[in-house]
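Weekly sync, protein design subgroup
Attendees: M.S., D.O., the rotation student, P.L. (late)

Item 1: inverse folding check
M.S. brought a backbone from last month's batch and wanted to see whether the design step gives back something sensible before we order anything. D.O. pointed out we never logged the input encoding, so this time it goes straight into the notes. Structure tokens as presented (120 positions):
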């Protein structure tokens, strides 16, 4: 059965932020920081998420070649590969050990949102 997609970017943001907060994950120290809140306005945050690169300049990771997502293709999106721990994702499972993984239903809902066009 296909996952129920989130309908808005705000739902994706809330799910990711709740997961980080509930598990006390220090995402501010990660090379991608809080990628779902990059920007000063909701429009900037959405645009940066759907068109931006995963890693920030100065992070020590490549700043090109790793878009956060591919609109219309959740399974090919770096965020889904990272959250799912896909073997073809070169940076491993996110979040890393010792933190818990995001639940599969939420990963599937994010992937379905991406599949549906990652609408704002």
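Designed sequence read out in the meeting:
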């Amino acid at each position: 059965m296909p996952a129920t997609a989130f309908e808005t970017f705000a739902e994706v943001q809330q799910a990711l932020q709740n997961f980080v907060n509930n598990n006390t994950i220090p995402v501010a120290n990660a090379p991608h920081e809080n990628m779902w809140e990059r920007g000063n306005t909701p429009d900037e945050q959405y645009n940066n998420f759907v068109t931006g690169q995963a890693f920030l300049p100065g992070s020590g990771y490549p700043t090109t070649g790793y878009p956060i997502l591919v609109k219309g293709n959740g399974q090919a999106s770096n965020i889904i590969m990272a959250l799912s721990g896909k073997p073809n994702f070169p940076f491993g499972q996110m979040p890393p050990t010792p933190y818990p993984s995001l639940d599969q239903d939420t990963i599937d809902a994010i992937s379905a949102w991406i599949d549906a066009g990652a609408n704002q």
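Discussion: Helices lie at 9-22, 42-51, 78-84, 104-115. The chain has four helices and no strands.
Action: P.L. to compare against the previous round before Friday.
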